[in-house]
Amino acid sequence: MKKHNFYAGPSVLPEYTKQKVAEAALDFAGTGLSVMEVSHRGKEFVAVMDEAIALVKELLNVPEGYSVLFLQGGASLQFLMVPYNLMKAKAAYLNTGAWASKAMKEAQFFGEVVEVASSKDKNFNYIPKSYEVPADVDYLHITTNNTIFGTELKSDPDVPVRLVADMSSDIFSRPIDVAKYDLIYAGAQKNLGPSGATLVIVKDDVLGKTGRQIPTMLDYQIHIKNESMFNTPSTVAVFACLQTLKWLKENGGVAEMEKVNIAKADLLYGELDRNKLFVPTVPAAEDRSRMNVTFVMAPGYEALEKEFLDLATAKGMVGLKGHRSVGGFRASTYNALPLESVQALVDAMKEFEAIH
Ligand code: PMP
């Protein structure tokens, strides 16, 4: 049976990526060796890293003066590396969910953390709009897409201070103006590849300014100098990311992804707004994520939750259960999820409504 993969991450990847990884698992670049068993210093893997970095720059139109890194430790290690490298004394955070809260917790090891606004009062079902950023902070940190709560900031904000963004779950889903950011990071395991690689895009001249001694592995400047090869990179994950980047380029890049992502989101939210059995958890259309569509059973129909999950499962849909802190459902609709999978989900909702 065809599977419809709605997992939040690790999550659906392009067939192209899976095929190329499967081939390279046995014979990588004509070496007669698996991509798992070659040196990262060999010319074949160095070419993979170089091309992956070049494609990130090309696809996101990264300006001069920025470095692109493939690191490890997930986005969670970036919660720590960002303040270690950028925070002198004080940083501002927009608290839009569990991941933002975790980022704030790590920053507290390095100085004063100012929560400029929080949507916790409504279980993070909106993006706060009016807040002031103190002029004396070292940066403002935002989470562009809140994977658990299904909200997304779909434009690049103008702020008077340095801007840092966790884009783990929406990078490459739309064009972004990298010049507005001083640092962007993302765990690979949503729109890019398997877990194990973490993408960082950093403006070179923001680094080395804290006066703090930074342990080697946590120092962005070390990784820049060593072209993401200070230590052994996550070779297979980076190889897989490169395949997705090639697929992205082949399929029209981030502008084309945005069009398809809008079409998928419109289809799904349209049905959620129409169907009497379901309600989206994010009320304001402008805050609704195009990557993680969260919804619950409508009031009075709560008891049907398991029955709908069973129906969807029987139709090959996986990963629809909502995060435990929100409940209900979450359909993750990353770049590689085809429109037909969203259509299948919408059809299942219609069918379920007809039964009840
Ligand atoms: N930030 C966001 C927005 C996420 O969705 C996640 C994980 N799903 C993380 C951070 C943490 O990422 P990791 O597991 O790679 O540390």
UniProtKB/TrEMBL annotation:
Binds 1 pyridoxal phosphate per subunit. Pyridoxal 5'-phosphate binds at residues 75-76, 99, 147, 166, 189, 231-232. Its main location: cytoplasm. GO terms for cellular component: cytoplasm. This is Phosphoserine aminotransferase. It is an enzyme of class 2 (transferase). Its cofactor is pyridoxal 5'-phosphate. Its EC number is 2.6.1.52. Gene3D superfamilies: Aspartate Aminotransferase, domain 1, Type I PLP-dependent aspartate aminotransferase-like (Major domain). Keywords: Amino-acid biosynthesis, Aminotransferase, Cytoplasm, Pyridoxal phosphate, Pyridoxine biosynthesis, Serine biosynthesis, Transferase. The gene is serC. L-glutamate binds at residue 41. Pathway: Amino-acid biosynthesis; L-serine biosynthesis; L-serine from 3-phospho-D-glycerate: step 2/3; Cofactor biosynthesis; pyridoxine 5'-phosphate biosynthesis; pyridoxine 5'-phosphate from D-erythrose 4-phosphate: step 3/5. It catalyses: O-phospho-L-serine + 2-oxoglutarate = 3-phosphooxypyruvate + L-glutamate; 4-(phosphooxy)-L-threonine + 2-oxoglutarate = (R)-3-hydroxy-2-oxo-4-phosphooxybutanoate + L-glutamate. The lineage of its organism: Bacteria, Pseudomonadati, Bacteroidota, Bacteroidia, Marinilabiliales. The modification N6-(pyridoxal phosphate)lysine is found at residue 190. GO terms for biological process: L-serine biosynthetic process; pyridoxine biosynthetic process. The keyword Cytoplasm applies. Residues 5-345 form the Aminotransferase class V domain. Catalyzes the reversible conversion of 3-phosphohydroxypyruvate to phosphoserine and of 3-hydroxy-2-oxo-4-phosphonooxybutanoate to phosphohydroxythreonine. It comes from the Bacteria. It is found in: Cytoplasm. GO terms for molecular function: O-phospho-L-serine:2-oxoglutarate aminotransferase activity; pyridoxal phosphate binding. NCBIfam families: PRK05355.1, serC_1. Homodimer.
